[in-house]
TrEMBL record:
UniProt keyword Transmembrane present: yes
Annotated protein name in UniProt: DUF975 family protein
PANTHER family, A to Z: MEMBRANE PROTEIN, MEMBRANE PROTEIN-RELATED
Source organism, top-level taxon: Bacteria
Amino acid sequence: MWNRAELKMRGNMAFKKNYVSAVVVALLMGIFGTVSGESSARRVSENSDIYSGNLFNVGMITGLLAGIATVVILIVLVAKVFVGNLLKMGGYRFFILNQTAQPGIGTLLDGFRSGHYVNIVLTMFLRDLFTALWSLLLVVPGIVKHYEYLMVPYIIAENPAMDYKEAFQISKQMMDGEKMEAFIMDLSFLGWYLLSAVTCGLLAIFYVNPYVQASFAEMYTFNKQKAYQEGYIR
């Protein structure tokens, strides 16, 4: 079993030795990870209040804004599935490689250059879809599945040709008995997130985000070594 303090220490050291690239990659991963149609729709709907004084036009304007919001959401979702997820996968690959080398920011594009674009898109999409569907049932099953599938992006980052079923199965085995510990590791960064909020996100950009990404990449590397030892990957 991995040790949380050791993983965080190793992650801290790893990202600092390639600091600028790690900061930029983590920042872009954060942008791709927080893109959502819901926030766009909320902003559009809030803007509709400006016109509420004109009762004659409110129905037409509301319908127009709803149509615009729908188009924006679809564009954002398509961009996330076909571009954003590929770039995020490149970010996971960056932090894996960064443990033993000094990869450049261009590693973000490795998903597009791998020759397995469709497989990566499908695997990342299904991971998001399955997590979302489980979350619709109850919050707890969604959280459990999030941690069960936690290793999928790392697995596919190193093995872009791997069938999604195999990637999901390996992640499930890697996280067997470790989901609660991974959840606690996430919580251990809570203080850093609060400090980031105080600094208007600057601390997150220049320290916390790359620190978190590097630490979870260390978790993947530990689990991969354990998987080799236990014989369920070759």
